Amino acid sequence: MSNSVKAIVITKDENYAATLSEVQQSDLPDQNVRLDVLYSTLNYKDGLAITGKGPVVRSFPMVPGIDLVGTVNETSTDEFAVGDHVILNGFGVGEKHWGGLAQKASLNSDWLIPLPGALSPKQAMQIGTAGYTAMLSVIALEKQGITPNHGEILVTGANGGVGSFAIYLLNQLGYNVTAATGRMEQSDYLKELGASQIISRDELSNPGKPLQKERFAGAIDSVGSHTLANICASLKYGGVVTACGLAQGMDLPASVAPFILRGVSLIGIDSVMRPKADRIEAWDRLASLVKADYLDKISTEITLEQVIDNAVQLMKGKIRGRVVVNCQS
Question: Prior bond to 253 cis, omega within 30?
């Protein structure tokens, strides 16, 4: 048996570079669970890391890949047994700790959860962090008491990974969904996902009044900045918005008016360091809601050899939908 495995490796010596390399298994991090990585994904954060277009990687050399699903082949913990299928999302993997774009990985058992029985390994990565974050956002709305009979739910960044999954999940649960997008030519696609109304992101992206006409019962926002401020100003009394992204910016140029005059709630969604119980709840819900035909429609499969080229295309905005990486092919 070869002691080397294929991996995407990012180095920073005189130059920043990502290459498909051979890594010795003895060089894998010293953690308590070793896995055969079945599938990983190519997320926007992975694209930033591989191309060097964003300061994602915290130490070098680094194996990127913030998501993975794999089979346990060695463990020193009672929580998992050899042969178990497990999922990882976040925890700084692919940034501070070697990640999923490799044939094998060594990870802390605290970062792992069991793969739900209703999902195949490939389906788990077709969902990935995008679907998992969207599910956390939907659950947050539910826990704040926002039900389908409360009215319209707005989803911003509708063509993005989180946004498109949020539309799909909300529709599956019976909500009336309004999608805000910068690509109005994609309206038919968003309606296929389950959006009832489509609006241009321009309606939300400019400075607005502190209080506006009450329209939305809730919202899932991945944009931030003026968009999030205008959402807060447009929520009905007791409305809730979840915030999980900053595509427009990290600032929040809003006033306290919606919070103290309309009882509006702003809920932050962090997917990276989420407690294990929340992760299990989200993935169990995903397993029950997401249909296989939808996942096949929104995803393409590539190999490790194709990752770097696809990362370049992703950063140019030329890839739509989920990119699943078969790490064993």
Answer: no
Q: Is the pLDDT of residue 329 over 90?
A: no
3-state SS, residue 253: coil
Helices of type H across 72-216: 121-143, 161-172, 187-193
What pLDDT digit, counting tens, does each position of 163-209 carry?
Answer: 999 999 999 999 999 999 998 998 999 999 999 999 999 999 999 99
Residue type at position 56: V
**DSSP symbol at 117:** T
Q: Where are the alpha helices (DSSP H) in 173-304?
A: 187-193, 225-234, 257-261, 276-289, 292-298
Half-sphere exposure for 288 (CA within 13 Å, toward CB):
8
Interatomic CA distance for residues 139 and 159, integer angstroms: 21
Inter-residue contact 63 to 8 (CB < 8 Å): yes
What is the predicted pLDDT for the residue at 2? 67
Q: Which residue has the tokens 């929040």?
A: 252
Whole-model pTM: value is 0.94
Q: How many residues does the chain have?
A: 329
Residue closest to 328 by CA, chosen among 3, 2, 5: 5
CB 226 within 8 A of CB 205: yes
d(CA 113, CA 122): 16
**Element spanning 74, H or E:** strand 67-75
* DSSP H stretches of helix in the chain: 44-51, 121-143, 161-172, 187-193, 225-234, 257-261, 276-289, 292-298, 307-315
